[in-house]
Amino acid sequence: MVRPEDPIQIAGLNVRNRLVMPPMVRNLASDDGLVTDELVEHYEARSRGGVGLIIVEAAAIAWEHRIMKRNIGIHSDVTIEGLSRLAEGIKKHGARAFIQINHSGPKSHMDTRFVGPSDIPVMKNKIPEPLSIEEIEEIVQKFVDAARRAKEAGFDGVEVHGAHFYLLSAFLSPYTNRRSDEYGGSTERRAKFSTDVIRGIRRALGKYPVIFRMNGVENVERGITMEEGIELARLHADAGADALHVSCVVDETYNPGVPARFTEETMPEFLKGFEYDSCIPCASKIKPHVGVPVIGVGMVRDAALAREVLGRNLCDMLGLGRALLADPEFVNKLVDDRDGEIVPWKD
Ligand SMILES: Cc1cc2nc3c(=O)[nH]c(=O)nc-3n(C[C@H](O)[C@H](O)[C@H](O)COP(=O)(O)O)c2cc1C
Fold first, then answer.
1. Ligand 1 and 242: CB distance under 6 A
2. Hey, which of 28, 105, 215, 236 has its CA 20 to 30 A from 162?
């Protein structure tokens, strides 16, 4: 039976245990996207606290297309020095350091140019401009450049953000992608942009580890179904992703402009099958179909549940998001069986 403290490999890279800090934006970078001491300390604390793999929050591959004002930037070589301090700070306490690379596309808190596959909004009154093929190809190169900077800064790998209706995710989803060119229509075509990004990173950086984060299912009208989520996972693993990080869109909280598809009554059984409102059931559906590690995530707040999820083999690695914001020492306490000392997250 798999235990949280068991090591695992991603693309031949040893990770000391199965527990992951998923990307969570902090809004703590400088005004121009440089890493601050506060950010270094934030992530160092979770590495000292025993986390196996830290995926640093969404970093902007194009500064005008960030999610919020003080995102981390990875859009120019000027960012590399600060990113190096961050990677070093994480690695010196034993965690592996990855960083998520992102283009906000149709979803941002900034007053910026909203872009996407088609003119379908995911935020109220923010109708995105459809990207031209030339622009798409330029953005693929920006992802590749960002991955190169992550490597130069000493990160062990990158996570390409293909979830939550940011740019790559909006191309993947039949809800937002209504194109009729080579980037729209069939599952393969909607996945062309994000698989081109993975292949581009491979071509430029060789065996450098890449995780792909995706929505396993989208509870929105016309959204990705579980069957298609499995197909998308396969396509991205075939394109070279070394691990898949399965998120999902279960309600309208983060996408108020998007109509929900399921009601309480019509929700598929497998999504109800887990006693918590979580994306872990999606990860467990995908896991048997791919030959790379699958990271599950969502609503795990206590050590007993973390042990249960991994013990039941629902995913290979487990993300602890808000639990790690509440208690940087969560993992050390779990591994030492000091469950009672864990500081709980309060909603
Ligand atoms: C404050 C906050 C910021 C987040 N930022 C990101 C992000 O930058 N990239 C991303 O893919 N997900 C982001 N997420 C989603 C988390 O990675 C994770 O999937 C989610 O919190 C569910 O896990 P949890 O229930 O263990 O917290 C964020 C979540 C929170 C709470």
1. no
2. 28
On the 0-12 / 13-18 / 19+ scale of CB atoms within 10 A, 29 is buried
pTM of the model: 0.96
- Residue bearing the CA closest to ligand 1, atom 6: 24
Q: What is the pLDDT of residue 64?
A: 97
**Residue 100: CB within 6 Å of ligand 1?**
yes
Domain ranges for the chain: 8-341
Residue 14: is it exposed, middle or buried by C-beta count within 10 angstroms (0-12/13-18/19+)?
exposed
Q: Could you tell me the distance, in angstroms and rounded to a whole number, from the CA of residue 199 to the centre of ligand 1?
A: 26
Q: Is residue 74 helix, strand or coil?
A: coil
Residue 316, sorted as left (phi over 0), alpha (psi -120 to 50) or beta, turns out to be: alpha
Atom of ligand 1 nearest to the CA of 57: 8
Task: List, for residues 282-335, the tens digit of each pLDDT value.
Answer: 999 999 999 999 999 998 999 999 999 999 999 999 999 999 999 999 999 999
Q: Is 332 helix (H, G, I), strand (E, B) or coil?
A: helix
- The highest-level CATH class for domain 8-341 is alpha beta
Ligand 1 atom with minimal separation from the 301 CA? 26
